[in-house]
Fold these 4 entries.
Entry 1:
Amino acid sequence: MIQEYNNYTQEDFEVWRLLFERQEQNLQNKACKRYLACINEMSEVMRANEVPNFEKINKVLLAKSGWSIHVVPGLIPVEGFFQLLAKKKFSASTWLRKKSQLDYLEEPDMFHDVFGHIPLLMDKEYSAFAQKLGEVGVKYIDNPEIVLQLQRLYWFTIEFGLKAGETQTDIYGAGILSSYGESKGIYTTNPEIKPYNFSSIINQPFRTDQIQTLYFEIESYEQLYDSLNEFDRNMQQQG
């Protein structure tokens, strides 16, 4: 699949602009510093007044970290998703929500995939963890228990992860970064926030149909990589 850029409508451009401008302002004192630095570095190819062009973004991403966007129609099987991550390719859809869906969308669209996920793939430590997650997923793809554990890890880190900041908890999970309501709710609804614990996360069920009530807070992206690497080593020793 490819991105059919000429097919975007005026409403698509308007929706992207509204979502981008709202979150850009909202996240200034909420998102982790590395995310803000990365999205600023991508300002020539990811900005409010232009629906993102994947070809332009890929040039920047590949030059910086070796990652690229891989177009998918929507949610894809976990096997294919892990395979793409292992090859430093991030799955992204090309469709945008409607104006009537600005505040909530159950299935991820391009704003979630691109605005939420792509900037931090410019970061060396974060992107190393994302690739490692894909590699481990591919290695154990025939083990349903481990695949489920890795899906939980992905959910509570890459999608809904928090990071300890200098004065407060900062956001790095794409599901929160791309959600106006959830990114505000982290600081106003007093959700349960636990210190990052690998064993707890891989045994923690999650729901996709509601705003999260439980989050895990990391100290660093290196912590993510190291814990996953240790898990992989332990699995190999047991195997």
Entry 2:
Amino acid sequence: MDIIIHVVSLGCAKNLVDTEVMCGGFVTQGMYLAEDPSDANVMLINTCSFIRDARQEAVEAIREAIQWKRRARRQRRVIAVTGCLVQRNLPQCMADFPEVDLFLGLDDVPHAAERIRAIFESYVNHSNANAYDKTEGSETPASFGPLPLPTYLYDHTTPRLTVTPEAFAYVKIAEGCNHFCAYCAIPAIRGRQRSRTVDSILQECKNLLANGVKEINFIAQDSSSYGEDLPDKPSLATLLAACDDLPGEFWLRVLYTHPKHITTELLERLAHGKHLVPYLDMPLQHINSDILHAMRRGMDGPATRALLKDIRSRYPELTIRTTFLVGFPGETTAQFQELMDFTKEFGFDRLGAFAFSREEGTPAALLTEGIVAEKEAARRRDSLLAAQKSISLKHNTALLGKTLPVLLTERISRGLWLARGQGDAPDVDQTLRVHANGVQKPMFAHVKVTAAAPYDLEAVIC
């Protein structure tokens, strides 16, 4: 019987790459992928567990899969769940969702196809298998404790099926994190940092470019720490220099850097590279020194301000994107107002914000004083985003009548395309609606901006 898999990928782009690796394994092992779950007999859910909202989204997806399974009358259907939710607490997942047939940890990503085939065939043969299982048994949930920290990292030889639009792709240059910020559970889920070699990344980039990809996005938990764990300790700037020398017409973007690791060499590369877009994604989390210290970010407010002032003065062409965390335990109204004032004063090009989520196993989960109520944290987040909306509208209004280089990524309808500028990363930043008659496939173009909204632009191709 054919194995036909419907895949649900939740969370960030780093998780999406894991999904693509699993899909590559499915295809190479003769399995099929289905866009419509009603056409599938296996549903795979790749979960996120970064914050409470992400876990809730994962739980809802699993419940929907269970209903999908129950709706089958004569067809055997299998549910597999993987990703951070499973890695973080396998016993809890097994107890909460006994209807799930297979749980896969992060080290199981390259083996997902064989695990799914084994359990699917055992069901076809009327065996009773319902377990996280690296061999073939049918253990009970009580047999399993927490999973060890993962060590897996894919490379350029790993089968991978990209599921992003054909114009762009993500390349994971490292996995894991060594920072241990007080609020973040990622190091306890994804493990210590482990970087790929420069040669492996270069080869993957060559493969993607040969297949028509026009924008490559480098991702990691902390891209700016890339290479510190390798014997020859290549820096991110070294990697970018090697990739920037590749031939062809393409953009290269770096996501997820840490302010502690921003160097002049890196900034020079980002600002003046041949293929590198002038874009700095640097989550800061806060500006108040006491809050930054409590968060264990490794930089205080004055140092953060000095870094930003230096970047803006020396590299005005750089688009600066950041993320802030509000409602951290102990954050006073005055400290939040300091963050709000700073946001308005600096005028970030791109900004995201999220409210504190108490994560089990993190130092912040043990804090008991100065707790900010959930509703108040949400109000602060919304206020910060409202301030940024005004800033974004001001930035975009200034672009009216100007000509911008863009990448046309997806055709909406005849003569109308979605596009992104150099300052717009996939999924998180704004888009342009471009009137471009005669364009048949994704391409680079210059466009003239004709209308502006806070997070969207309209333009015509030049």
Entry 3:
Amino acid sequence: MKTASHKIAQELQESLEYIRRHTAQQPRTGLILGSGLGDFADTLQGSERIPTADIPHYPRSTVEGHKGYLVFGKVGKTPVLAVQGRTHYYEGHSIERVAYVVRLMALLGVDKLLVTNAAGGVNPRFRAGDLMVIEDQINFLFANPLIGAVVPPEPRFPDMFGVYHPPYVELIEQTALELKIPLRKGVLFVSSGPSYETAAEIKMIQRIGGDAVSMSTVPEVIVARARGIKVAGISCITNLATGLSSKPLSHEEVTEIAYQVKSQFQKLVREVILRMND
């Protein structure tokens, strides 16, 4: 009888074998692209695209602005795997399945991960269109992708101190400074969604230390830490959170603002990836 951990390992192996039949590229850096930010994958050199819907056991991405591809290519000389269309807990996937791609990345040889997302600004000093380097996270999904069977080589109890690799936080700050790209720094609060937060919930998030709020990222980061992958993170502040904005929130606004800052976002991400691998 197969154990749960054996079943997951077998599924990962079948996914890996499918990918290997479609590309021989060997990525060392992973990049997960958030809502409205996926166009960066189209800038990779020598790219090869695999629809995630064709990969065995891979969860489907159903949200507008998430195309559903794994894109293999290069930034300069750095081999990269870009996730153009992440999956979310609110889509109905299990929390383990939401982070499935990070386990795949580890099997493909990825040892560095840059996560990005669209986020609401909770810090009253933030404005729509700001970019924020993530220095830590608060998990209010009330779920963890490591619950259940231990999947070797992941430990049962991974330490989460400095989960956003402090040298990478400094690297992103220094890179933004040299590129003259304004950059905030803060803590990312993540809840399940898909409804936006109430004004009372935003006040709570402010009081417990959140600077921006999102519905993604945390599951992938937890699995990356368990797999020994060093993580960096950038949020695009696409709107002010409920109670700080005078107009109703919408996904259309999120993608519109992300598009408006696309040039600066792509410039920063490209240079950060190059420097992470320097």
Entry 4:
Amino acid sequence: MNFERRKGVSVIIATLLLIAIAVAAGIIVYVFVNGLAGNLTSSGGGQTTERLQMQSFNFQLTPQTCACVGQILQVFMINSGSASTTISAVYLDGVLLAVTTIPDTGTHLISAINTNAYTAPSTTLVNDFTVTCTGTNGAASSLCFTATTAKTTYATGDVGQVVIPISPAAVAGTSHTVKVVSTTGATYVFSVTAGRVG
């Protein structure tokens, strides 16, 4: 019986080849993961560059000169991010409010506009329901603004406020959630307490 002898790769060379293949595969994986991580950190951070923060809130504001059943929530905000942001929607306790232009300085029943959210510069305040309204100053449930300027876009460092009329007034001590959504989909959630300033 004749056995044909075949030459094969020696054990040492086979081991060296396996080591070389493993090292090459490791290098390829390292380069791929490094490139992927670099792309994610450099191009995917657009949404995190805009940032609205609540500076304070006033949930105590009620008319001082009339027997109003309504209440006003003011949320003062600042854009502390590195990109501008534009408000597209405001929610109160999960209910979508109509983001609309501040009404003129006439009187407005709180009960008629309590599904709205008004955006304003920080210098535009809700008056004490008597100063700028004419004709029916201090009338029950009337709301007056000191200006009619709307503000939905916040550049870096800008401050402003969201004014939310509520009727009937919220129960003192209850917690409520205000959610502000930007045009890019960034979401900012703030917690406020009725009857308090924070």
